[in-house]
Amino acid sequence: MPAAYTPYRAVIRLLPHLAAFAPERFAQDYLHKCIAHLLAVLKHTGERGTAFAALADMAGSLAAVGCQEGFEPYLPAIAAQVDFSVNCFNSCNGVADMGGGGPCLSMLFMKGC
């Protein structure tokens, strides 16, 4: 089975959909656990892009209903992972590939997080 279709990656991709389905309840009851999980996932190179995309999509869903303030405590940790991604890919490959961090950071700033 290709890596893009693993159950683990499917669960990561499901999190933003849950946030979009019931943003207020998600922000109140599940945001902390989901962001903590995604921050742990960001440490694994193979899933980094998927986790960054999930964070960006969750930020968009929550910002649409004014619940983006839940992201504020996590912004330093997310920014640190973006920085790590840039430094890792620059030093390892000589290429400025952020592993999905750039679009994630852009979405967080555009949505007022």
What does this protein structure show overall?
The chain has 113 residues and is mainly alpha-helical. 69% of the residues lie in helices and 0% in strands. It has six helices and no strands. The chain has helices at residues 7-21, 23-29, 31-41, 48-63, 75-93, 101-110. Helix 1 packs across helix 2 (23-29), helix 1 (7-21) runs parallel beside helix 4 (48-63) and helix 3 (31-41) packs antiparallel against helix 4. The termini are far apart. The mean pLDDT is 78.
Poorly predicted residue ranges: none
Straight-line distance between termini? 37 Å
**Number of beta strands:** 0
Relative strand content: under 5%
Q: What structural class should be given to the helix and strand makeup?
A: mainly alpha
Specify the helix fraction band.
55-70%
Radius of gyration: 14 Å
The topology string of helices and strands comes to HHHHHH
Number of helices: 6
Largest sheet: none
What is the 3D shape? globular
Mean pLDDT: 78
Task: Give the helices and strands, then pairings.
Layout: H1 7-21, H2 23-29, H3 31-41, H4 48-63, H5 75-93, H6 101-110
Helix pairs in contact: 1-2, 1-4, 3-4, 4-6
List descriptors.
113 residues; mainly alpha; globular
In brief:
The protein has helices at 7-21, 23-29, 31-41, 48-63, 75-93, 101-110. With 113 residues, it is mainly alpha-helical.
